[in-house]
Amino acid sequence: MGSRNRASARELGSRLQAYRDSAGLTLRDLAQKVGRSPAHLNRLENGVPGTASESEVVYYLASCGASYGDVERLLQFCRDANDDRGYWLCPSGEWMSDSLRSLMFHESSANQAVNYQPEVIPGLLQTEPYIQALLSHENISTERRQARHVDEIGSSKFKG
């Protein structure tokens, strides 16, 4: 029943690692208790999708000395992760919205940012020939087109 999306697997792994850290265990110590390799537990904590089964989460948390309530909460977390929503919203309580907590987690653990905006024209491409070509396809008079061209050029210049 491994987690299928990377976002939820990372959040689950982060929570598991917090339990291990609070128990004062190294990966090697925990690996001996659980009967898994340190490499496997490292993949689990780093959010590699498909590595966290419910039974593995139970063994992991029990070896860290987690309470029954904590085990139940993380098991539900593991089950919810398998919904494959493509994003992850974990319950955070009343003091912070779920989406804000998830955004903060994923932004702090990201190593790359990608921005795709097909509707935005970069500033360096907004030249006079570009604006003329853009406005030439509109069905307006030449005088009106020239007035709009002057307006567009004026609004694209930096004001110092």
TrEMBL record:
List the SMART domains hit by this protein, alphabetically: HTH_XRE (SM00530)
Point out the signal peptide segment: none
- Which residue intervals define the domain HTH cro/C1-type in the entry? 16-47
For this protein, the record's InterPro entries field holds:
Cro/C1-type_HTH, DUF5753, Lambda_DNA-bd_dom_sf
SUPFAM superfamilies per the UniProt record, alphabetical: lambda repressor-like DNA-binding domains
Q: What is this protein called?
A: Helix-turn-helix domain-containing protein
